[in-house]
Design brief:
- The protein has about 240 residues and is of the alpha+beta class.
- The chain has 3 domains: about 15-85; about 100-190, Double Stranded RNA Binding Domain (2-Layer Sandwich); about 210-239.
- Helices cover about 60% and strands about 10% of the residues.
- The protein has 7 helices and 4 strands, in the order αααββαββααα.
- The chain has helices spanning about 15-20, 25-45, 50-85, 135-145, 170-185, 190-205, 210-239, and strands at about 100-105, 125-130, 150, 155-160.
- A 4-stranded antiparallel sheet has the order 1-2-4-3.
- Strand 3 and strand 4 form a beta hairpin.
- InterPro entries: Ribosomal_mS35_mit, Ribosomal_mS35_mt.
- GO terms for molecular function: structural constituent of ribosome.
Length: about 240
């Protein structure tokens, strides 16, 4: 039903600018529906134009009040959000960046006479939570097989130590190389599982005599077909 009804349009504006701002989508639909209902009744002669305008104006005022309540509620909610103080506290134990958190442990032993060098100073220990490595179930099991006692199931922690090199920094790099190689080797677990499944299926099929008979029959057919093609090949070349 269009808004420009005969006779009624001179009494009812299509939409006031303030209402365009205030009305929400739901309220707009209510107003349009009510306007069309009143317009239909006016066209059918059930209501006079003045009566239709009065009914619509009353309904319109109700919608404006409803909009005002909604906006007031939104203002209170936004004011509440502003009053809430943001939590600027940062966990200093959680370093920035992505990926697993590597925890390093070293020791400092001062030798007698003030000498800073000591053989135990070069030892480096690396600890990492295995869950943070993002491994699959098979990769996790493979990693546990590789590391053995270096994995602590209670803490879900993998520990790697190194003191091969004289300098501590080289041993730190050695721990990282070991960790990366373990992750790479554990990543091959999926292929190992697939190979094991394939091997198990082959063994079950080999143990099935009916399947092996059909397989041998197919091989014989292929051999006969290949021999036939070889015998007829010279004639095809001559033709």
């Amino acid at each position: 039903m269009p808004f420009s009804l005969n006779g009624l349009s001179k009494w009812i504006p299509i939409c006031d600018l303030s209402l365009q701002i205030v009305y929400q989508d739901e309220i707009k639909r209510k107003v349009e529906k009510k306007f069309n209902e009143i317009g239909d009744r006016v066209e059918k002669g059930e209501l006079e134009v003045e009566e239709g305008y009065a009914l619509f104006k009353e309904f319109e005022d109700q919608m404006v009040l409803e909009c005002a309540k909604l906006m007031e509620a939104e203002d209170e909610a936004s004011q509440f959000d502003k009053d809430v103080m943001p939590d600027n506290k940062k966990d200093l134990d959680d370093p920035p960046g992505e990926g697993p958190i590597l925890r390093w442990q070293t020791r400092v032993v001062f030798a007698p006479g003030g000498d800073a060098w000591h053989p135990k100073n070069r030892k480096v220990k690396l600890a990492v939570t295995v869950k943070e490595l993002g491994l699959s179930k098979h990769q996790f099991l493979r990693l546990r097989e590789l590391v053995g006692k270096r994995y602590n199931p209670g803490k879900d922690e993998l520990t790697i130590t190194s003191e091969r090199f004289e300098h501590r920094e080289e041993n730190r790099k050695d721990c990282l190389r070991t960790l990366f190689s373990l992750i790479e080797e554990a990543g091959k677990a999926r292929q190992l599982v697939e190979d094991a499944r394939t091997s198990a299926v082959k063994e079950r099929l080999k143990a099935n005599p009916k399947f092996m008979e059909r397989l041998q029959a197919k091989k014989q057919v292929r051999i006969k077909f290949a021999n036939c093609m070889i015998r007829t090949m010279p004639f095809r070349l001559l033709s």
